[in-house]
Amino acid sequence: MIKPYLMFSRECEEAFQLYLKAFDGELLAMQKYGDMPPNPEFPVAEKDKDLVLHAHLKLTENGFIMGSDGSRDLKESPKVCISVELNSEDQAIKAWNMLKEGGNVKMDLQPTFFSKLHGSVMDKFGVTWMFSVI
């Protein structure tokens, strides 16, 4: 499944509450950074624990968006990414390897606590793809 993934700088929850009301949507998930299992390689500052790690909103019968907060400089980062959810690790690895050629890996494709594999890559055309194998 392919869904737009919106990137925010500390305003994801506020934006998703607006979208929820505007479309009479359904909030399917909203996880905060403070909900993550502790990881010494990815420490979360106390001031960031209420930021949105991942939100998933159903806008219409078949329309969905996802989003998160981050500390990245959005002038240098895309505001919208393409999120691809796949059931096959092989399919993800094939697409990942093709898209990273001439591109820029943002986060290595690797196992995470929420996905068999997850990663982010900007292809040679400047499009950022987020992969999740569920």
UniProtKB/TrEMBL annotation:
InterPro entries: Glyas_Bleomycin-R_OHBP_Dase, PhnB-like. It comes from the Bacteria. CDD domains: PhnB_like. Residues 2-129 form the PhnB-like domain. Gene3D superfamilies: 2,3-Dihydroxybiphenyl 1,2-Dioxygenase, domain 1. This is VOC family protein.
